[in-house]
Amino acid sequence: MQISMYQASIPVFVRMLDNLSKILEHAARYADEKNIEPGVLINARLAPDMYPLSRQVQIATDMAKGCAARLAGLEVPVYEDNETTFPELQARIAKTAAFVQSVTAEQIDGSEEKPVTLKLRHQEVSFSGLTYLVHFVLPNFYFHITTAYAILRHNGLPLGKRDFIGGI
Questions:
Q1: Using CA atoms, how far apart are residues 67 and 34, in angstroms rounded to an integer?
Q2: Contact status, residue 44 vs residue 151, Cβ threshold 8 Å
Q3: pTM of this prediction?
Q4: Residue 145: exposed, middle, or buried by beta-carbon count in 10 A (0-12, 13-18, 19+)?
Q5: Ordered structural domains, the chain, with CATH
Q6: Mean pLDDT, range 136-148, rounded to an integer
Q7: Distance (Å, whole) CA 138 – CA 22
Q8: Contact indicator for 157, 53 with CB cutoff of 8 Å
Q9: SS3 content of the chain, % helix, strand, coil (to 5)
């Protein structure tokens, strides 16, 4: 049995975006319970040269929506990257999950050899669809969700592996 491009992408994005949403719900409750200004967590970083929590969420959602759109041959939705509150971050995740779920298996399956070209900083990088998904999108997607988790954990939020992985 083979795994399809759709199975390797859309369900993964949906599940992890849902887990990220639950982690942020937990963070908002934690901030309220501990009388922490939510912006402190939203702007928290693991290191001075790393992006804050808000940007980690933005990049994770960008990875999911960008991949779904590019593999399906659709226009990539553009978001403003201006979220500064937990409700705004939640809305971004929900908007991304809705878009990703609107993409069908028929639109993505068979995209293994589809050329994907990205403009990264000052250069263009080209991939096949499979290489783009497996070697660029998924590692980036998981990195930014993991970093969001780690920022919150580092700031005292009592999270565990089950929060990251979700229900099995």
A1: 37
A2: yes
A3: 0.96
A4: buried
A5: 5-165 (1.20.120.450)
A6: 98
A7: 20
A8: no
A9: 65, 5, 30
